[in-house]
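To assess whether ligand presence alters the predicted conformation, the chain was also submitted together with adenosine-5'-triphosphate. Input:
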Amino acid sequence: MDSPKPSAQGASIRFDKVSKTFDKKGGQSFAALQDVSFDVKPGEIAGIIGRSGAGKSTMLRMVNGLERPSAGQVLVGGQDVGTARGAALRTIRRDVGMIFQHFNLLSSRTVYDNVALPLEIAGVASSAIRSRVQDLIARVGLQDHAQRYPAELSGGQKQRVGIARALATQPKVLLSDEATSALDPETTQTVLGLLKDINRDLGLTVLLITHEMAVVRDIATRVAVIDAGRIVEEGSTYDLFVRPSHPTTRSFLGGITGVTLPAFIAGRLREERLDSGGEQVIRVTFTGQHATDPMLALLAKDLGVSVNILAGAIEEISDKPFGNLLISVDALRADEARAFLERHGLLTEVLGYVG
Ligand SMILES: Nc1ncnc2c1ncn2[C@@H]1O[C@H](COP(=O)(O)OP(=O)(O)OP(=O)(O)O)[C@@H](O)[C@H]1O
C-alpha cells in the first residue's frame, strides 16, 4: 500500500551564527551558545546531542521564540524568530509544536480536553475541534482512552497525548525535548516509531534534543553534536557513526556501537608491538554495500592471512547497514592486511597488540 501523501510541507530551520549570553548575578555573564550554525531541511528529522548543560534546550527554545539569540539569527521557514513580535510571533508558535520529557499535560483535563486545548486557545469552532481531536487521538492510537485522565495513563500513553496535542494546530515543525528520556526502552521504540510515521505522513520537520545516541541512531538522519555551547561536529547520522571525528562524538558512540573487546583480550592489550611479533588488534568498520561482503574470507584466500574474530555486530542506521568488527591478525602481516581491507572500501583502526 502506498503511504499517504504528506498533507503539509515542513518548514526549514536555520541557526545562523547564533550566540546566547545569560546575565548572571553579580554582573557577570555566561555564554550558553557560541557561534552556532546548523541547518535542518524541510521534512527532515534532525537531532542535537550533548551532555547536560551543553546548550541543547537553549537552542530548541529559540525555534519557538521562548529564548532570543544575543547574536545571530534563528529562522523558521525563512522567518526570523528572534525579531518576531505580536501576530508574527504567534504565527511562528502555531507552526512549531513541542513535546516534553515530562509530557506537561494538564492533570485536571481528560486526554480529549488536553488535545483540544491549543485549538480552544486558537479560537477554533467546537464542531471543528471535535473532528480534529478525534482524528489526532486515533492517529496516536488512544481512541479508547479519550475520556481518561493523565494519571490513568502509562508514560508512553502520556507522551502520545503530548504528541497529539503538539499536532493540534497542524504545525510545520515538531520540537522534541528529551521526549523519550523518561520512558523504558520498549516504549521509547514505539514513541520513536510514531514520530517517524508522523514525519512520513505529514511531512513536518522534526528537531529533537537528546543525550542518547541510540535515539539519534534510531530516528535522525542528521545530527549536530554540541559541547559547552559550541557545535563540535555535524553531519549525516550515518557518517557520524562511521567516521566520528570529535572526542565528544566518540564518547557518545562508545556506549552504543556495542562492540567491545572481550575482557581477557582487553586486559592484555599493549600499545606497542611485542618483540615476539604477536597479533595486531584492529577495528574494522563495514559501511554501505560492503557491510555484507565476505572480506575476511578474501583476506585469508588472497593474502593467506588468517583472521581471529574477537567481537562484532552489524546494525542499520538510516536504513543502511553498518558493521563493526574487532579482529586480530599476525602483527608482521598487519600493514598488508589493513591495506587490503582499505582498498576494498572498509575502514580500519589499530587498537593495539596482544602476545
Ligand atoms: N535563563 C537562564 N539563565 C542563566 N543561565 C541559563 C539560563 N538558561 C540556561 N542557562 C545555562 O545555560 C547552559 C545551557 O543550558 P541548557 O538548558 O540549554 O542545556 P542542556 O544541554 O539543555 O542541558 P540539560 O540536558 O541538562 O537540559 C547551562 O549552563 C544553564 O545553566
